[in-house]
Amino acid sequence: MPQLTCARTVTAALALLIAGAFLPAANASAGTGAPPAASGVWQVDGYGTDVVIGAGLLLEYQTTAVSCLPGVSARPTGRPAAGSTVWTDDEGQVYRFRPGSAPDRAVLHLDGSAGDLRLRRIAALPPGCGAAAAADPVRVFDVFWATFAENYPFFAAKGIDWQSVRAHYRPLVHAGMGDAALFAVLRDMVAPLHDAHVSLDAGRVGRFAAGRPGTVPPGPELDQQVKDYIRRTDLGGLPFHEYARGRISWADLPNGQGYLRISGFGGYTPDPDDPYAGNSAVLESALDTVLTPARTRRLHGLIIDLRVNGGGSDALGLQIAARLTDRPYLAYAKRARNQPQDPTRFTTPQPIEVRPADSVTHYTGPVAVLTGGSTVSAGETFTQALMGRPGGALRVGQPTQGVFSDVLDRQLPNGWSFGLPNEEFLTAAGTTFDGRGIPPQLTEPVFTPAEFAQGRDSAFAAAEAALSGL
């Protein structure tokens, strides 16, 4: 199933269960018009995923034409309403199952995600699910290649012929090859995609991830370097208040503007496995402290700095956007590739709205958003969510990284894991910014060697000036 940040790991499933062996008989209410029970086998529309619910477990199976491997496992942790169930995995990810519009339809929501997964009840898992999977190099290669072939949406846009990739690399794979050689083959297959949401984790053998050429991946060292630079260059000793373990920062500027820096949409608590609800609560508290009614009324402009932002939960970005409008509006529409043989087929787009936050004062004045190549994933979906904001949001800096989809985390038969995107985030006009990133309206250098050497922050200065002129 999709995951919610750029740096997640997949919970190991309980592979000891034989597929279907623990399931009760088919739901007696099927075909009677009664809401479906959770127990049974459900196929996710898109995502190469089947979900099995029964005997106190929710089990994910990751499927391709050549494989069916166990993935995430979760246990029940709540039943908020009739027919609905709540499940939580070992990493704290919460899954909310609820009945759909018909007895054989249901919906699964992952806390922290924007949008839902649509489920259809099926009679059984594909043949071979639950059986021990061969882990030889050829089998590993085939699962890896097929997962991209059936789920990756951007081969045409990136000029990659995936069939030709298979024809070139599969003859290099054989039963006796070592792990290092196999890792090199898989890495070399996906490196030309230049996609920051593509990754390969082979444990001690190696790890691979790479972004768009010419961009710098966000990380703790870059974040601290830039934060210190902003303190010296832009704020000049002004009080700089930090929240959410330093991932959210605020300063009142002398010209009546506010400066809000966000380096990620998650990691707001000391526990790396803290569920979405914990991060949301910390964010809400920070926003209450920063956007007080008195400050909101007197602000003459707001600069939101996302230039070093490693992503996280899209829903946390929507939570901030909800403080910046007094009217609902479309943030984006979300769809996933759902036809393994046809890369042009997608699920019906789900419209995702920004709705004004309840019981708070909303800031509806001018906003400028600072972006660059180190603005990644949820940092980009938040930027996109502000594009339709009533009153707008001026984008200043450089194009964002160009990766929007939740990461589809997958397992390989030999225990390695990898990730890839399978979704598009659409504008109101039906276009996407995948690959190229969201472009700025005012182009300025962002943390270049020349900017550092000369003690300048051109994007910050341009945003200040633009807001002052409004």
From TrEMBL:
Keywords: Signal. InterPro entries: ClpP/crotonase-like_dom_sf, Tail-specific_protease, Tricorn_C1. The keyword Acetylation does not apply. Residues 219-445 form the Tail specific protease domain. Residues 1-30 form the signal peptide. Pfam families: Peptidase_S41, Tricorn_C1. PANTHER family: CARBOXY-TERMINAL PROCESSING PROTEASE CTPA, TAIL-SPECIFIC PROTEASE. This is S41 family peptidase. It comes from Streptacidiphilus jeojiensis.
